[in-house]
Amino acid sequence: MVESVVVTLLPVLFLVVLFGGGGLLRRRDIDMDGAPPIRKSLFYSSKYAIMAIWAAMVLHAWGLRLSFVEVPKLLKWTSLFLWVSGFGLLFIGRFGLGDSFRIGSAKEATRLKTGGLFRFSRNPMYLGVYATLVASALYTLNPILFLVGAYVIVVHHRIVLAEEEHLRGTFGQEYVEYCDRVRRYL
């Protein structure tokens, strides 16, 4: 029961923070919705796929068996560790970005964030998403989740590359020097 609650609460709380924070930003005339840095259909399909994969893990945790085989205990605990760690990265990254957070590329001026987790990874939130996708696939051992998760990771890597180009154009030498100091993911 505790496992099911933890598996459920993390994505629900993150979505509340994400969309609730967007509402707070809008009240201050800040649009959280940036411009999709890649083709819109790829961008939005990958974002919705993340929520579908998270929902699959939640449903599996509550007893809707999505596995074709029994998931070994070690794999289950590994996936739960990745799940919690991934959401930890998502929460810390989201709060670390503050007013500069956008879904997509910012349409207006923002600040380059290089402190906190961003001292170790230029993309801790994407790393968190990747961890949660791998966690879902391992937790369920469902081949469809593996395939959809792989699709999301490939698309999000393209998003990262496009966002890096945007940031290079926006912040110039400051961003180039940041890239020289900090790796893209780890």
Outline the structure in words.
By secondary structure, the protein is mainly α. The chain has one domain (2-181): Up-down Bundle (Four Helix Bundle (Hemerythrin (Met), subunit A)). 69% of the residues lie in helices and 0% in strands. The protein contains 6 helices and no strands. It has helices at 2-27, 40-61, 73-97, 124-140, 143-171, 173-181. Helix 1 runs antiparallel to helix 2 (40-61). The longest helix is centred in the C-terminal third of the chain and has 29 residues, at 143-171. 27% of the residues are buried. The mean pLDDT is 94.
In brief:
The chain has helices at 2-27, 40-61, 73-97, 124-140, 143-171, 173-181.
Give the low-confidence spans.
none
Summed up, the helix count is: 6
CATH topology: Four Helix Bundle (Hemerythrin (Met), subunit A)
The CATH C-level name is Mainly Alpha
